[in-house]
Amino acid sequence: MTLYQIDAFTNRLFAGNPAAVVPLKKWPEDLLMQQIAMENNLAETAFFVPSATSGVDYDIRWFTPALEINLCGHATLASAYVLLEILKAKKKKVVFSSKSGLLTVTRNKDRLDMDFPSWKPERTDVYPPALLASLGNPEIAGIYSNREYIVELLTEEAVKNCRPDFSLMKQVDRMIIITAPGKTVDFVSRFFAPNAGIDEDPVTGSAHSQLIPFWNEKLGKKKMVARQLSARGGDVYCEQLSKERVIMGGQCVFYMKGQFTTK
Protein backbone atom coordinates (compact mmCIF):
# COMPACT_ATOMS: atom_id res chain seq x y z
CA MET A 1 0.00 0.00 0.00
CA THR A 2 1.01 3.61 -0.55
CA LEU A 3 0.80 6.17 2.23
CA TYR A 4 1.02 9.96 1.98
CA GLN A 5 1.60 12.23 4.96
CA ILE A 6 0.28 15.75 4.54
CA ASP A 7 0.36 18.78 6.85
CA ALA A 8 -3.15 20.26 6.62
CA PHE A 9 -4.47 23.75 7.42
CA THR A 10 -1.05 25.33 6.96
CA ASN A 11 1.19 26.78 4.25
CA ARG A 12 4.45 25.64 5.86
CA LEU A 13 5.98 22.31 6.75
CA PHE A 14 5.86 21.04 10.35
CA ALA A 15 2.79 23.14 11.17
CA GLY A 16 -0.93 22.48 10.88
CA ASN A 17 -2.24 18.96 11.46
CA PRO A 18 -0.42 15.97 9.96
CA ALA A 19 -2.69 13.36 8.37
CA ALA A 20 -1.90 10.00 6.83
CA VAL A 21 -3.74 9.30 3.57
CA VAL A 22 -4.06 5.78 2.14
CA PRO A 23 -5.70 5.48 -1.32
CA LEU A 24 -7.25 2.03 -1.86
CA LYS A 25 -8.97 0.13 -4.67
CA LYS A 26 -11.26 -1.74 -2.27
CA TRP A 27 -11.93 -1.80 1.46
CA PRO A 28 -9.77 -4.07 3.63
CA GLU A 29 -11.08 -5.40 6.95
CA ASP A 30 -11.91 -2.75 9.55
CA LEU A 31 -9.43 -4.28 11.98
CA LEU A 32 -6.58 -3.81 9.50
CA MET A 33 -7.42 -0.12 8.98
CA GLN A 34 -7.52 0.37 12.74
CA GLN A 35 -4.15 -1.36 13.10
CA ILE A 36 -2.63 0.82 10.36
CA ALA A 37 -3.94 3.95 12.10
CA MET A 38 -2.51 2.74 15.40
CA GLU A 39 0.85 2.10 13.73
CA ASN A 40 0.85 5.55 12.11
CA ASN A 41 0.09 7.12 15.50
CA LEU A 42 -1.21 10.34 13.95
CA ALA A 43 -4.46 12.02 14.96
CA GLU A 44 -6.18 10.50 11.91
CA THR A 45 -5.47 8.17 9.04
CA ALA A 46 -7.86 8.56 6.09
CA PHE A 47 -8.70 5.72 3.72
CA PHE A 48 -10.69 6.13 0.53
CA VAL A 49 -11.89 3.92 -2.34
CA PRO A 50 -13.54 4.73 -5.70
CA SER A 51 -17.27 5.06 -5.13
CA ALA A 52 -19.96 3.09 -6.95
CA THR A 53 -22.49 5.84 -6.17
CA SER A 54 -23.49 8.18 -8.99
CA GLY A 55 -22.17 11.71 -8.47
CA VAL A 56 -19.66 10.60 -5.84
CA ASP A 57 -15.94 10.22 -6.55
CA TYR A 58 -14.74 8.34 -3.45
CA ASP A 59 -16.00 6.80 -0.23
CA ILE A 60 -13.88 7.92 2.74
CA ARG A 61 -13.34 6.73 6.32
CA TRP A 62 -11.16 8.04 9.17
CA PHE A 63 -9.45 6.27 12.06
CA THR A 64 -7.66 7.65 15.10
CA PRO A 65 -5.09 5.38 16.77
CA ALA A 66 -7.93 4.11 19.00
CA LEU A 67 -11.20 4.17 17.02
CA GLU A 68 -13.08 5.11 13.85
CA ILE A 69 -14.74 8.54 13.85
CA ASN A 70 -17.68 9.86 11.84
CA LEU A 71 -16.12 13.12 10.57
CA CYS A 72 -12.61 14.50 10.16
CA GLY A 73 -11.76 17.78 8.48
CA HIS A 74 -7.98 17.88 8.21
CA ALA A 75 -7.67 14.32 6.86
CA THR A 76 -10.40 15.06 4.29
CA LEU A 77 -8.53 18.19 3.24
CA ALA A 78 -5.33 16.13 3.02
CA SER A 79 -7.07 13.41 0.97
CA ALA A 80 -8.36 15.97 -1.53
CA TYR A 81 -4.88 17.48 -1.72
CA VAL A 82 -3.41 14.05 -2.53
CA LEU A 83 -5.98 13.51 -5.28
CA LEU A 84 -5.90 16.98 -6.82
CA GLU A 85 -2.27 18.03 -6.39
CA ILE A 86 -0.22 14.81 -6.17
CA LEU A 87 -2.18 12.23 -8.16
CA LYS A 88 -3.26 15.05 -10.51
CA ALA A 89 -6.94 14.20 -10.82
CA LYS A 90 -8.20 16.24 -13.75
CA LYS A 91 -10.98 18.04 -11.92
CA LYS A 92 -11.57 21.12 -9.78
CA LYS A 93 -13.42 19.34 -7.00
CA VAL A 94 -13.70 15.97 -5.29
CA VAL A 95 -16.91 14.56 -3.82
CA PHE A 96 -16.53 12.12 -0.92
CA SER A 97 -19.26 9.99 0.63
CA SER A 98 -18.85 9.49 4.38
CA LYS A 99 -20.66 8.52 7.57
CA SER A 100 -21.57 12.21 7.86
CA GLY A 101 -22.97 12.45 4.33
CA LEU A 102 -21.49 14.00 1.20
CA LEU A 103 -18.37 16.16 1.57
CA THR A 104 -17.23 18.29 -1.38
CA VAL A 105 -13.74 19.76 -1.59
CA THR A 106 -13.14 22.46 -4.23
CA ARG A 107 -10.01 24.23 -5.44
CA ASN A 108 -10.13 27.94 -4.59
CA LYS A 109 -6.91 29.59 -5.78
CA ASP A 110 -4.19 28.59 -3.31
CA ARG A 111 -6.49 26.82 -0.85
CA LEU A 112 -9.01 23.99 -0.76
CA ASP A 113 -12.55 24.67 0.48
CA MET A 114 -14.57 21.91 2.12
CA ASP A 115 -18.39 21.86 2.16
CA PHE A 116 -19.23 20.27 5.54
CA PRO A 117 -22.32 19.84 7.72
CA SER A 118 -23.24 22.62 10.14
CA TRP A 119 -23.66 21.28 13.68
CA LYS A 120 -24.92 24.14 15.84
CA PRO A 121 -24.17 23.54 19.55
CA GLU A 122 -26.78 24.32 22.18
CA ARG A 123 -26.18 25.74 25.63
CA THR A 124 -26.29 23.13 28.38
CA ASP A 125 -26.15 22.96 32.16
CA VAL A 126 -25.75 19.17 32.14
CA TYR A 127 -22.15 18.00 31.99
CA PRO A 128 -19.79 15.87 34.07
CA PRO A 129 -17.97 17.56 36.99
CA ALA A 130 -14.66 16.46 35.46
CA LEU A 131 -15.24 18.71 32.43
CA LEU A 132 -14.28 22.01 34.05
CA ALA A 133 -12.02 20.38 36.62
CA SER A 134 -9.91 18.83 33.84
CA LEU A 135 -9.46 22.32 32.36
CA GLY A 136 -8.29 23.79 35.67
CA ASN A 137 -11.72 25.30 36.57
CA PRO A 138 -11.35 28.36 34.32
CA GLU A 139 -13.72 31.31 34.30
CA ILE A 140 -16.23 30.58 31.55
CA ALA A 141 -18.82 32.38 29.44
CA GLY A 142 -20.85 29.21 28.89
CA ILE A 143 -20.88 25.50 28.07
CA TYR A 144 -22.48 24.13 24.91
CA SER A 145 -22.85 20.69 23.38
CA ASN A 146 -23.18 18.91 20.08
CA ARG A 147 -20.81 16.07 19.15
CA GLU A 148 -18.34 17.62 21.59
CA TYR A 149 -18.59 19.81 24.67
CA ILE A 150 -17.75 23.40 23.76
CA VAL A 151 -16.45 25.53 26.63
CA GLU A 152 -16.43 29.24 25.87
CA LEU A 153 -13.66 31.05 27.73
CA LEU A 154 -13.36 34.80 28.11
CA THR A 155 -10.11 35.57 26.29
CA GLU A 156 -7.63 34.25 23.77
CA GLU A 157 -5.02 34.14 26.55
CA ALA A 158 -7.23 31.82 28.59
CA VAL A 159 -7.43 29.41 25.65
CA LYS A 160 -3.71 29.60 24.99
CA ASN A 161 -2.69 29.17 28.63
CA CYS A 162 -5.05 26.30 29.49
CA ARG A 163 -3.13 23.29 30.87
CA PRO A 164 -5.52 20.31 30.79
CA ASP A 165 -5.35 17.30 33.08
CA PHE A 166 -5.73 14.57 30.45
CA SER A 167 -6.03 11.76 32.99
CA LEU A 168 -8.99 13.50 34.59
CA MET A 169 -10.37 14.41 31.16
CA LYS A 170 -10.77 10.69 30.36
CA GLN A 171 -13.72 10.74 32.78
CA VAL A 172 -15.58 13.09 30.40
CA ASP A 173 -17.94 11.32 28.00
CA ARG A 174 -17.17 13.49 24.95
CA MET A 175 -14.30 15.27 23.28
CA ILE A 176 -13.78 18.88 24.35
CA ILE A 177 -13.38 22.18 22.50
CA ILE A 178 -12.35 25.39 24.23
CA THR A 179 -12.85 28.65 22.37
CA ALA A 180 -12.84 32.43 22.75
CA PRO A 181 -12.85 35.59 20.61
CA GLY A 182 -9.52 36.20 18.88
CA LYS A 183 -7.30 39.26 18.84
CA THR A 184 -6.21 39.18 15.18
CA VAL A 185 -8.70 36.56 13.98
CA ASP A 186 -12.42 36.18 14.64
CA PHE A 187 -12.09 33.29 17.08
CA VAL A 188 -9.55 30.84 18.48
CA SER A 189 -9.87 27.31 19.80
CA ARG A 190 -8.17 24.16 21.07
CA PHE A 191 -9.39 20.56 20.87
CA PHE A 192 -8.84 17.70 23.33
CA ALA A 193 -9.69 14.02 22.80
CA PRO A 194 -7.73 11.74 25.17
CA ASN A 195 -10.46 9.07 24.99
CA ALA A 196 -9.86 8.83 21.23
CA GLY A 197 -6.11 8.45 21.68
CA ILE A 198 -5.36 12.14 21.00
CA ASP A 199 -4.59 14.37 23.98
CA GLU A 200 -4.62 17.52 21.84
CA ASP A 201 -5.39 17.67 18.13
CA PRO A 202 -3.33 20.32 16.28
CA VAL A 203 -6.07 21.59 13.90
CA THR A 204 -9.55 20.08 13.90
CA GLY A 205 -11.84 20.57 10.90
CA SER A 206 -14.79 18.70 12.42
CA ALA A 207 -14.68 21.02 15.45
CA HIS A 208 -15.31 23.92 13.09
CA SER A 209 -18.55 22.28 11.94
CA GLN A 210 -19.69 23.33 15.42
CA LEU A 211 -17.58 26.47 15.93
CA ILE A 212 -18.65 28.17 12.70
CA PRO A 213 -22.40 28.22 13.51
CA PHE A 214 -21.56 29.07 17.14
CA TRP A 215 -19.51 32.15 16.25
CA ASN A 216 -21.69 33.04 13.27
CA GLU A 217 -24.55 33.61 15.71
CA LYS A 218 -22.41 35.36 18.35
CA LEU A 219 -20.52 37.67 15.97
CA GLY A 220 -23.21 38.11 13.31
CA LYS A 221 -20.65 37.29 10.60
CA LYS A 222 -20.94 34.73 7.81
CA LYS A 223 -17.28 34.81 6.79
CA MET A 224 -14.62 34.46 9.46
CA VAL A 225 -11.00 33.48 9.99
CA ALA A 226 -10.11 31.15 12.86
CA ARG A 227 -6.90 29.96 14.45
CA GLN A 228 -6.36 26.79 16.47
CA LEU A 229 -3.83 27.51 19.21
CA SER A 230 -2.07 24.16 19.46
CA ALA A 231 1.71 23.93 19.57
CA ARG A 232 1.79 23.42 15.78
CA GLY A 233 -1.04 25.87 15.12
CA GLY A 234 -3.22 26.23 12.07
CA ASP A 235 -5.52 28.64 10.25
CA VAL A 236 -9.04 27.91 9.00
CA TYR A 237 -11.11 30.01 6.61
CA CYS A 238 -14.73 29.77 7.78
CA GLU A 239 -18.08 30.55 6.19
CA GLN A 240 -21.67 29.85 7.26
CA LEU A 241 -23.07 28.79 3.90
CA SER A 242 -26.58 27.95 5.09
CA LYS A 243 -28.35 26.61 8.15
CA GLU A 244 -27.27 23.10 7.15
CA ARG A 245 -23.80 23.65 5.64
CA VAL A 246 -20.53 25.42 6.37
CA ILE A 247 -17.36 26.02 4.37
CA MET A 248 -13.95 25.53 5.93
CA GLY A 249 -10.87 26.10 3.87
CA GLY A 250 -7.15 25.79 4.20
CA GLN A 251 -3.85 24.98 2.57
CA CYS A 252 -1.79 21.79 2.67
CA VAL A 253 1.91 20.93 2.45
CA PHE A 254 3.31 17.60 1.23
CA TYR A 255 5.65 15.90 3.70
CA MET A 256 6.13 12.24 2.79
CA LYS A 257 5.22 9.38 0.48
CA GLY A 258 5.94 5.81 1.53
CA GLN A 259 5.23 2.17 0.84
CA PHE A 260 4.17 -0.26 3.55
CA THR A 261 3.13 -3.88 3.79
CA THR A 262 0.68 -5.62 6.10
CA LYS A 263 1.92 -9.17 5.49
Chain-wise SSE layout:
Layout: E1 2-8, E2 17-23, H1 30-40, E3 45-50, E4 58-63, E5 68-69, H2 73-86, E6 93-98, E7 101-108, E8 111-117, E9 122-123, H3 130-134, E10 140-145, E11 149-153, H4 156-161, H5 166-169, E12 176-181, E13 187-193, E14 198-201, H6 205-219, E15 223-228, E16 234-240, E17 245-250, E18 252-259
Parallel strand pairs: 2-3, 4-6, 11-12, 13-15
Antiparallel strand pairs: 1-2, 1-18, 3-4, 4-5, 6-7, 7-8, 8-17, 9-10, 10-11, 12-13, 13-14, 15-16, 16-17
What do you see in this structure?
By secondary structure, the protein is of the alpha+beta class. The protein folds into two domains: 2-112 and 250-259, Diaminopimelate Epimerase, Chain A, domain 1 (Roll), CATH 3.10.310; 122-240, Roll (Diaminopimelate Epimerase, Chain A, domain 1), CATH 3.10.310. It has six helices and 18 strands. The protein has helices at residues 30-40, 73-86, 130-134, 156-161, 166-169, 205-219, and strands spanning 2-8, 17-23, 45-50, 58-63, 68-69, 93-98, 101-108, 111-117, 122-123, 140-145, 149-153, 176-181, 187-193, 198-201, 223-228, 234-240, 245-250, 252-259. The protein has an 18-stranded mixed β-sheet that branches. A hairpin with a 7-residue loop joins strand 3 and strand 4 (58-63). The radius of gyration is 18 Å and the shape is globular.
